[in-house]
């Protein structure tokens, strides 16, 4: 652990980091509450100023992380285990996947699975004419791109680094541990504190952004089911209820509250997906999902490096920069949460699970929901485009309405409201737990009082972001929050490479003193098996 206080208000926490974090977030809350319009204006001007830089910087960083993760999963380090020599995974594969998916993209994918295909269907830089069959195909490709392998490469990288240093190097489960090989003794001082503060800063605003989007969508669902008018007041009430339930859940811990709720979300999601497949245009949905998935894979290389350099239409900033910023801002939170539930897995298992499985699930989800909306616009009565243009949060429920299912459609909308609520709760309680784990110096069971405090803080910040202007302000906030943490991500790459090299170097020079861990590729040019050494000894020697 790092600098945990032993008494007083901050008992069990890193007092210095916690105090600064509280002051920083409290200042943001006060500024947003009393100068709401000014906050929205400042965020928008900052975003406009940095856009030319971010349009290539985020692209290059995310492209590197994608290829780096693929290399870790199939290269010489693929058999490195996140834990002891022959340690087995703590959770079953199903529980593991359901937790990481629920925390990672549950809320966001519910919001954008229809909204993004419909918005891209109308206009994007890769088509000549919008609202056409070709536009529908390209819209699906772009949606897969922003929710597929590239985004999960960010989450999986941060998670793998945290898990490696926590379970193989016996360092605290906190972001600064990933920089131990780079910062050395400075990692235990002010520089390490700054790293954790940047992680908290990105996490807080990343969660607030996603909660804000989910609350707006839940408001739209309540309007569809009960006829309640969309209003900021109702959204604030929803935020209060969601955060109250989430805080109660996080107090019960990961193995009980978070795991059970994540699995319930996953089963309910499967039921909803099955319903959409059976009651929607089944043949069209299957064909479109297969075709658009192939189109996505065929074009992923070009899209990964696309910067929209020759066109000044704002598309790159509005879409790719926002989504890469959103994934980066969420990466400390989701990364740490995934690391907590991934002990005992090898690099290969980890990359296959965290990079590929959620991407496949996402493709199916977007294919069915986005495909249903596009079908009704191309071949049905339409109306979804107009609904999205009026209020993007209504996209999912406008699609259900276009299916003309009568009372069954109302029931489906009600189920979707419940699903949104449970995903919001899962994301909020996991985020609260992660923030406190960072502030507690890596303690996986931070003090209960601080879990409650930060649950309330997240709720208040979400409320301020909603009051400050809704979607645009939320997008600008998350992009700005992600930028400083992106520097930490780059340093984490260096830290991981240095640590892996030191371990492999020790193996090649025959300095091991324990039973071998996992087989290495090219351990010795002569084909001999060196004597193993513990990872902690490797780290100290190198």
UniProtKB/TrEMBL annotation:
Signal peptide region: none
Entry's transmembrane regions: 56-74, 94-115, 144-167, 195-214, 234-254, 266-286, 321-339, 351-375, 395-425, 452-471, 477-497
Subcellular location: Cell membrane
Keywords: Cell membrane, Membrane, Transmembrane, Transmembrane helix, Transport
Chief location category: membrane
InterPro entries: BCCT_transptr (IPR000060)
Organism domain of life: Bacteria
Stretch list, region Disordered: 508-542
Membrane-protein topology: Multi-pass membrane protein
Homology family: Belongs to the BCCT transporter (TC 2.A.15) family.
Protein's name according to its UniProt entry: BCCT family transporter
């Amino acid at each position: 652990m790092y600098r945990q206080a032993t008494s007083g208000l901050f008992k069990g926490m890193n007092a210095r980091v916690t105090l600064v974090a509280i002051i920083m977030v409290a200042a943001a809350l006060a500024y947003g509450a009393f100068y709401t319009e000014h906050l929205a204006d400042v965020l928008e001007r900052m975003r406009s100023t940095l856009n030319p830089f971010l349009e290539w910087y985020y692209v290059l960083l995310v492209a590197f992380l994608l290829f780096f993760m693929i290399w870790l999963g199939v290269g010489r380090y693929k058999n490195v285990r996140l834990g002891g020599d022959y340690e087995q995974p703590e959770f079953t594969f199903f529980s593991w996947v359901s937790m990481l998916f629920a925390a990672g993209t549950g809320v966001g994918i519910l919001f954008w699975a229809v909204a993004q295909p419909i918005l891209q269907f109308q206009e994007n830089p890769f088509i000549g004419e919008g609202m056409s069959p070709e536009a529908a195909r390209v819209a699906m490709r772009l949606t897969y791109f922003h929710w597929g392998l590239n985004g999960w490469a960010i989450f999986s990288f941060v998670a793998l680094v945290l898990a490696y240093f926590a379970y193989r190097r016996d360092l605290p489960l906190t972001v600064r541990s990933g920089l131990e090989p780079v910062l050395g003794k400075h990692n235990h001082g002010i520089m390490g504190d700054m790293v954790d503060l940047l992680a908290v800063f990105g996490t807080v605003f990343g969660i607030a952004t996603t909660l804000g989007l989910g609350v707006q969508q839940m408001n739209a669902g309540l309007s569809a089911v009960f006829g309640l008018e969309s209003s900021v007041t109702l959204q604030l009430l929803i935020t209060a209820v969601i955060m109250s339930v989430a805080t109660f859940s996080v107090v019960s811990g990961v193995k009980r509250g978070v795991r059970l709720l994540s699995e319930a979300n996953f089963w309910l999601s499967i039921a909803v997906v099955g319903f959409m497949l059976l009651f929607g245009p089944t043949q069209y949905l299957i064909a479109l999902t297969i075709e658009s998935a192939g189109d996505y894979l065929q074009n992923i290389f070009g899209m990964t490096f696309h910067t929209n350099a020759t066109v000044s239409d704002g598309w790159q900033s509005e879409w790719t920069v926002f989504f890469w910023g959103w994934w980066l801002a969420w990466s400390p939170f989701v990364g740490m949460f995934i690391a907590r539930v991934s002990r005992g897995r090898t690099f290969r298992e980890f990359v296959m699970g965290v990079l590929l499985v959620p991407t496949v699930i996402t493709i199916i989800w977007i294919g069915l929901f986005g495909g249903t909306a596009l079908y009704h616009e191309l071949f049905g009565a339409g109306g979804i485009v107009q609904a999205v243009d009026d209020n993007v949060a209504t996209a999912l429920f406008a699609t259900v309405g276009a299916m003309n299912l009568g009372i069954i459609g109302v029931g489906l909308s009600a189920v979707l409201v419940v699903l949104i609520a449970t995903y919001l709760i899962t994301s909020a309680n996991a985020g609260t737990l992660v923030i406190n784990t960072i502030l507690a110096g890596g303690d996986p069971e931070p003090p209960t009082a601080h879990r409650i405090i930060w649950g309330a803080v997240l709720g208040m910040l979400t409320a301020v972001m909603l009051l400050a202007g809704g979607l645009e302000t939320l997008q600008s906030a998350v992009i700005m929050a992600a930028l400083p943490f992106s520097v930490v991500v780059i340093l984490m790459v260096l830290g991981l490479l240095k640590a892996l090299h030191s371990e492999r170097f020790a193996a090649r020079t025959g300095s091991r003193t324990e039973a071998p861990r996992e087989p290495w590729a090219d351990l010795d040019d002569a084909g001999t098996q060196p004597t193993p050494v513990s990872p902690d000894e490797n780290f100290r020697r190198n």
